[in-house]
Amino acid sequence: MPFYYAKVADIVRSSQRDELFIESLYQDILSICKTLNIKNFIYLRKVIPIIASSWYYFLTSFDNLQTLGEEYAGILRLDRDKKLPNKLLHIIWLVLYIGGESLYDRLFNHVKTNIAGSTSLVDRTKDDLLKLTTFLLDNKTILLKLHQSWFYIDGAYYNISNRITGIRYVLLREWLQDDSSTRSFKILGKISLIYLVYSLFQQAASFSSIRTSTFTQETVCYKKLCTLCAEYRKSTCATACGHIYCWNCIHDSLRYQQNCPICREIIHPGRIIFLQNFQ
């Protein structure tokens, strides 16, 4: 049986649909917690998105069923052998999909701690390695956007968890094939890829030119950059989850998704605080 791989528009449409249902599930769980007046509610708010996503995919993908978004777009997920992914592969995919960014942060923070405490490295090498790990941590958003731009170009893997596990999407019906928007997505992907690579090299150049003797000084200087535009922050503001961006950058981001770009917590534009005297 020939397989027809889903196009970028199909996969994006499916993902957006899934995010709507997960958001609805998140709000329902949040309402229940508020009604029951559960203690440690602030801490629990950070866990609820994980519970909502896990529950949603457990009821669908884990039983080899389509998610509501996949059903809406008429696509189906297959592994590298063009078979339905087994439960182990789905677990790996879900862990990376939900907690991939947290694992990334933990890994490089652990590496930074080991480097900073190492007695076998000379100071120059230690400073260079600390700069590299800090650069990779602070530019996590740009790296994720690079992957997204590449997805727009080749249309293969929607997110990094799909690429690692080899899960791709195929159309259930041949007549659903539609290449009308593929070219537009490729143009968008190439433009954004060029811009992001340029921004990354620009940040790397400015970052490598900063010679500091301590890790603390380096981190304080580099944290003045906005993780969305990769430039020094303008009209600095803070979200309810404690992350700092340019005022225009975070509001532009919230037009497309109501989540913090770093921790994925739900953000309402009205709760963003403008830090008027913040340096």
TrEMBL record:
Major localisation: membrane
Classification via InterPro entries: PEX2/10 (IPR025654), Pex_N (IPR006845), Znf_RING (IPR001841), Znf_RING/FYVE/PHD (IPR013083), Znf_RING_CS (IPR017907)
Enzyme class, UniProt record, top EC level: transferase
Location in the cell: Peroxisome membrane
GO cellular component terms, A-Z: peroxisomal membrane
Keywords from the named record: Membrane, Metal-binding, Peroxisome, Peroxisome biogenesis, Protein transport, Transferase, Transmembrane, Transmembrane helix, Transport, Ubl conjugation pathway, Zinc, Zinc-finger
Domain RING-type: 226-264
Family named by the database record: Belongs to the pex2/pex10/pex12 family.
Protein name per Swiss-Prot or TrEMBL: RING-type E3 ubiquitin transferase
Annotated source species: Ignelater luminosus
